[in-house]
Amino acid sequence: MSLRLDVQVRRGPLQLAIELEVGARETVAIVGPNGAGKSSLLLAVAGLLPLERGRIALADEVLDGGAGGPFVPPEARRAGMMFQDLLLFPHLAAIDNVAYGLRARGVGRAVARATADEWLRRVGLAEHGAALPGSLSGGQAQRVALARALAASPRLLLLDEPLAAVDASTRLRLRRDLRAHLDAFAGPRLLVTHDAVDAFALADRIAVVEAGRVVQAGSIAEICSRPRSRYVADLVGLNFLRGICRGGRLQVDGGGTLIVSQAPEGNVLATVHPRAIALYRSRPDGTPRNVWPAAIEALEVAGDRVRVRLRGEPWLVAEVTPLAVAELQLGIGGTVWVALKATEVEVFAA
Q1: Which of 66, 80, 146, 267 fits 51 for a cystine, CB–CB 3.0-4.6 Å?
Q2: What digits encode the pLDDT tens for the residues 276-311?
Q3: CA 119, CA 294: separation in Å to the nearest integer?
Q4: What is the DSSP track for 106-129?
């Protein structure tokens, strides 16, 4: 039972034009910058944002055929929706929040509460059924919202930033538990997230949305190895360049020329891993084919490394150890020499 989307609708200044298919038992993560249309896409699939044109179909049933076409109201779509802000009813106990969808479909109170109690047990909250949302931690509230989305036996699952409201220590455990629940769900799963780790850990496939359109979609390996935009490159931690390649020389848009190996001719995209970039206080000798001076724009700690933003031709980000920062006496406004081997520049057709 696949979900097929041709979503064409305007929301404020943004015009969505998104085509996508999500297979049965497949989790597709929607990633993209703020304002790209990710949450609007989920609202359209849920029936809360009717299409102007296009088509949303689940298996053989058309849920929305655009203006003048068939339209299945939200309550009849059997879509389990987990909102970014959770939207738990503050006056209802956890068990009644989870039972709400079942009660709205006409299920008797006793059966609905028994089902809700079972789902609270599955998400590790068996002892919190009587608790009001205000007394729960962020992680516990996330689990209640997930249980509510799953309890009504939905045909598809829609999750909007499901781990956004939890702290780092809770996030790891919840991510693992959420992955298990997603894997056990038989229908299509559509997940919106701004966090690359969440996307890679939870999804089978990634779709990148920018300015209301899918600019790249594929497996995690495809997205990481061949990013098609600067946003995607930043998401996976790579430097991203555009330019024209002729005879093994890449003329970079914005300035600079790099010697590259095994590169196609013409308009190309290129990536450079920050750890492939070497920094020196004086011009280095040796084998690197690409050497140029650059000014240090910023130093950013990232785990056990330091990201060094370099203004030169071209502009790049390098990653070095804290020890290298100290030994090279790197500081904002200082100048360094950049060295990069031709084989470290990954070039592919634009």
Answers
A1: 66
A2: 999 999 999 876 789 999 999 999 998 889 999 999
A3: 57
A4: T--HHHHHHHHHHHHHHTT-GGGT
